[in-house]
Records
---
Amino acid sequence: MIYRNPEDQVVDDAAIKELIDAYGERVTSLPPVAIVIAAYNEAGAMVCDVPVNRGQGAALRLGYRIAREGGASYIVTTDADGQYNPAEIQTVLAPVVAGEADFVTGSRRLGSQETKDMIRRAGVRFFASTISLLTGQKISDTTFGLRAMRAEVTSVVQLAQPQYQASELLIGVITHGYKVSEVPATIHRRRVGESKKGQNPLYKLHIPGVNNFFYGLRFARVAYGTWWRERQRTGQERPAGQSGSVSSSKSRSARIGPVDSAARANGSGPGSVDASASSAAPGGSWTTDAAKRT
């Protein structure tokens, strides 16, 4: 786990210690699939409480660490506000378990969405096109919260954003050479609570377009900032004397390498999705609720 701020590690260390004290071996011996939700006191979940509100991004980062250190091989993230269908968890998880991808995200544009907000829809298309152009990876939806990944992926990517962490994780995964896939999925209207994203001094007035403007502005800052950070990182890691161009065959090998190694390690691969994905069935997964105080 890469911590940009040492104080975050201190907070997480203390939170994990309290979690282990409360739940014992349930924390240290997780099943193969862990479901991480950045919400407070989700029913049926182990709750890792943090005394300060550091945002959704920090809560998920803590949840990823708990899942990895607890022995989970795969991580699924979703929200507690009813926007995502739990029945689609296996849809996003199956390609990862099968060794076909390292990271899979749902896509409302490939599936469906209930929102009638045309500005929000246009924003999803715009940022998907922009990030696709910047990273060279075609992406249709950059903010979908229902995702599945190999657990070790989260230990490599730097996660520093308190909000809008979906784009930070996605860009980081792509630029580290992991294979990313999308599957059709549905996003429903929010059932409970309200989004903290896009809030501004005029938020409660619900002036058309204003909240979306602030949301888009902040999302753009995170997306472009993450891309620039990762661009600098890859430049520093490039061996001396190596040119900036990479042959297509080498690039392809770098992308599929993590997938192949995962498939070999787990004995999985194309044709074994059903048997491997059964670990995501009821009783084979566990929910870790990384609480964020609001």
---
Amino acid sequence: MGPFDWLPHAPLEPLRLDWLSGVELAVLRLDRIDPLISGNKWFKLTGHLAQAQNARGIISLGGAYSNHLHALAAAGKRFGFPTVGLLRGHPQDTPTVLDLKAFDMHLHWLGYGGYRARHEPAFWLPWREHYPHLHPVPEGGGGLAGASGCGVLVEQARAQLQALGWADYDAWWLAAGTGTTLAGLVLAEAGAHPVYGALAVPDDHGVAQNIGAIVQAGYELLDASRGGFAKVDPVLLDFIDTTQQTCGLPLEPLYTGKALMALKAQVEAGRFTPGTRLIFVHTGGLQGRRGFTG
């Protein structure tokens, strides 16, 4: 399968919000790259697809609201390769799952215990036997292959700085779910600019370990999970609504909403002085808002 030379372009836009208090913020809009294959997921997939040229399709795993599986299934539908999804929990028809079916992804529900075994060394053996012609991709498109595909985001952002009137920037800020995109930015920056990751999941989800297996320095992780992955509260939802009303930026409550809210807290705490220039990565995932009210 492949090779795939589709490389979408993410616009870099200024973001004006009162609470920035002199901090300058631009948002790299990965949510705008494509109506279906949205966000950081395609960039993470590119490295894995490059390794899958001798395969006929892709098998991967995620939950019932998985942005990764959604992007993978949409890519398979568009580019004509089969996809298989291994899902956490028991059968349910979320808007995301209905899309997976519409995109012709073949689904297997693993239960919760079965899904927890995904880190076991022998996890993939029966699936490789059942689907010998498919290339396995880890949860969220993670690993070095996934991180390497995200390096182009640094190039895309730097190419648009002049249009903002910026000669340079001071740091990156983004949500971290597996840490793969963050690791890719750190690799591409090679120490030039720090990368801040707002953790959308608790410490026990292994994000620090995932990142540490790829890069050892050049980043900082901050808790933004607000009690756990997919934990949503009225304050967060109000922040998301207010942000969209104020500047037109749509956010979702699992990743981007929590990440930008965590940045607000850090700005208010004085971490970033007026004049600091930050790039916030909108990692997409807006499809996951459907049917999700918290």
---
Amino acid sequence: MKKTNALPGLIFIVIVGIGSAFAYFEYTDSAYGESLSIAAGVFIIALVASYAIKIADQWDRVVVLRLGRFRSLEGPGLFFIIPIIETVPYWIDTRVITSSFKAEKTLTKDTVPVDVDAVLFWRVVDPKKAALDVADYGSAISWASQTALRDVIGKTMLSDMLEGKIIDVRTEPWGINVISVEVKDVLIPSALEDAMSMQAQAERERQARVILGDSEKQVAEKFGEAAKTYVNHPVALHLRAMNMLYEGLKQNSTIVIVPSSAVETMQLGGLTGLTALTMGLGQDRTNREKEGAQPGPRSEPAKAVVGQ
């Protein structure tokens, strides 16, 4: 919608004021009719001048018709028309315009009925075509958006993103360019929400199990590499076994089950050496607890149980 500009009104007032002053100074009893004619002529000139002057904003393009035929596309800035002979039927905004539209009860490619609320971003790139080739380009783009969105939904799965390129093909002959179509909301029947939620949960569980399986495969490969290393370096295997036993005994666990074969490979002197190691670790932990700032419940010494 075109906003009223104050310049034509100002020019009308100035011309009428100058003409009235001139007619006043020329007024005499014998020249009354002449002064009245001057005033009337000045009024008509002021009216014609104010009507002939037009100003278009930076984003406006003005369609000028001369006796019903297209003459030119004016704007932005100051331009003139011939009153009565030329008319201005359209002031076209070339900025980006947003339009909301909706597609209700539309079936997707996987036969899911959806209600889609979308926003259309478009702009007029050819004002001449928009004015002359379509009666109301605003309503035309709205209806074209709805029908095109229905076509796109019917060709698209529910999980896919909606695209608005087909709308641009339909509106290009009108001089209108569709920039993008953004979906605000997609409403699906409540009966399908639970099924889709279960499907999504099952898919997440499947991905979690696949990741877990890959992780176990990688761990097994690393264990295989470590086993090959320990075969060629038995001392490293003994040190690793003793370290694992030490880590288990120094915790607050009261019982640690150790296979007898592992004790023999660590060469700790059988059950007597393992018992001495266990008692030593338990005594060290007891001493550390006594030296603590706050007394706490006394934990039992760790015990190692040798299994066959």
---
Amino acid sequence: MTKPTKIEENTSDAHTPGVIKRRRGIYLLPNLFTTAALFAGYYAIVAAMQGRFEAAAIAIFIAMILDGLDGRVARLTNTQSDFGAQYDSLADLASFGIAPSLVMYQWALSGMGKLGWLAAFIYTASAALRLARFNTQVGTADKNYFQGLASPAAAAIIAGLVWVGNDYFEPGKVLNISALIITVCAGLLMVSNFRYNSFKGIDLRGKVPFISMLVFVLVIVLITYDPPIVLFIVFFGYALSGPVMTLMQLREHRAQRKKSQMESETNSLASETSESDSQNSENQDTPK
């Protein structure tokens, strides 16, 4: 097994007796993926400023892929570190908080005046709050679920909308208003309490049924057939899954609570009836 690649810096004086050598540094491999994701987000902003919105949207999706790889690479190579976690969080803010809002602003919101840039700011601030909340709940939250829409998924909705609108729709007031509503809603979903499946329970190193590979091939074919529409529909549906799943869980919880109350009332009534019958029996057996 190869040793993790690590940049090291000697901070001690080799000629000083009695001084223990300390080595500081950062793991190279996972942070390269994080830097590449940050670069993709930065490039999306530059492309949007130049009016190349399709390239900007694609860059955000590339940042998503790289962001998903850096954590997995760190776990597979055992190169996790506090520095990597903090660097990844800052890169996420730039690539999935600032970049999507600026791309959307340049594409559809700049002509709406103050309302446009305020909507973009709501999205950016929500992404920052979402990441801050996630960082404080790393050790306590359920890893199978996200609390609130993950910032990469929200960025995918924004990027997908820009990509679809740029390819299939003419600019206009209706499109701008729709973009504003989706931008604000994506931001609010990030700071909501809706639960989203994290898909972290999927074991990529374990064995899977043969049909799973066929499904994977079909997904690639669908995305390749029409990437902007398929990606936008997939992530828009994922964004809707949070409220739907949460409402279904609340409904199930209320039904269980109501059932428990009914069972408790039934047991209480049965107990009272039993006590009453017992008392009546004792009264009948008492000699007059």
